[in-house]
Known about the structure:
Layout: E1 2-8, H1 28-43, E2 50-53, H2 57-70, E3 76-78, H3 87-95, E4 103-108, H4 112-120, H5 127-134, E5 141-146, E6 159-165, H6 167-170
Parallel strand pairs: 1-4, 2-3, 2-4
Antiparallel strand pairs: 1-5, 5-6
Helix pairs in contact: 1-2, 3-4
Amino acid sequence: MKSLTLLRHAKSGWDDPVARDFDRPLNGKGKRAAAMMGRHLRSLGLSFDHVVASPAVRVMETLDEIERGYGKALNTAWDRRLYLASAETLLDVVRELPDITGDVLLVGHNPGLEDLVLMLVPEAADGLRDAVERKYPTASVARMAFDVSGWPSVDAGAAVLERFVRPRDLDPTLGPDQD
């Protein structure tokens, strides 16, 4: 059994004048949402034996806040391929994960993360998949399980979506247009 948790970076600051999208930082709401999501992951008792993330500034800052809420460092492996990656590229990264890892956190961007969930979870799944299809907001987490012995066996339609949590599910003030 393998578990894959996908975390979209928290809300970034579009008002911050940066030369490159890659360098865009989080805004205050994003920092609050990421820290809360870290506390939520801790409350669920989740423990990741491998973390892979995009090296974009907003992802690094999201993980800083996740760690603050989670209460411990996550020992992240930075992978440039995750920056604005398509679902297909993300799936390639997943299939390359070390087989000794059983519980992986992948942190990146949309639309790739949302598309990956929709690719991996069968359409006949319950309402969680429908919620992902409607919108995968910033700082949201999708957790999937696979009945496989190795990551190379992960394929389209093979996942069970165990949970999908958005920041506004934990705190309504973190919903859209509430800052």
